[in-house]
Write a structure and sequence with these properties.
The protein is mainly α. The protein has one domain. It contains seven helices and no strands. It has helices spanning about 5-10, 15-20, 25-70, 80-90, 100-125, 125-160, 165-230. Helix 3 packs antiparallel against helix 6 and helix 4 (about 80-90) runs parallel beside helix 7 (about 165-230). It is rod-shaped, with a radius of gyration of 30 Å.
Length: about 230
Amino acid sequence: MDPTSAPADVAHDFSFLGLFLQADPIVKGVMILLAVASIACWTVVFEKVVKLAAARRQAKAFDALVRSGGNLESSGSGIDAHIAQAGIEAWRDQDASETRAERRERIERSMRAALTSRIKRLQIGLPLLATAGSTAPFIGLFGTVWGIMNSFSSIAKSQDTSLAVVAPGIAEALFATAIGLIVAIPAVMAYNKLTTDLGRIQSGFVSSIGMLGNRLARDRISHSRAAAAE
């Protein structure tokens, strides 16, 4: 039998697993890389969903505490407790030469710095989603281009332009592009959603920080006046 006719005679498996196993080593490597990226992205998504849900609850609890004028010196390790502790420490740092506006600004600045440090922790992993969303289609496209090049090589070697010769290589190549899109689309959607949610949580904390800063600055002036009256 003529070896050049072998590609046309071999039965090809067009299932997802079959396309992967029959792919060129370079295309197969691209598929593996995209699969690993997909697993990493979904790990980040599930982690952030849990952490942002906890942060959202803390933001609501912090807002309720500030509005009710409750005790800020409560134990805890959440964002709300971290911000409250920063505000109390700034409030205790007394300076008789400060005006109320200066005192409020200093207290709020301290709480905003505490908030920023915690928000940065929540942002860890989000750049991976952005990177995967922007690069995965091009990585898949590289696998597609390589697979199509192999298909043309098969045509040149077999001197046969029939679809049976070209179809397997093109199918494997397009499968790489499909995997790239499967990775990129959820990554972009998750990045946009998580970034929006994180921004809303941060805005909620900032609003509460403004109210708390005003309250602490006012309480500090009252304390100073009471001490002077004595």
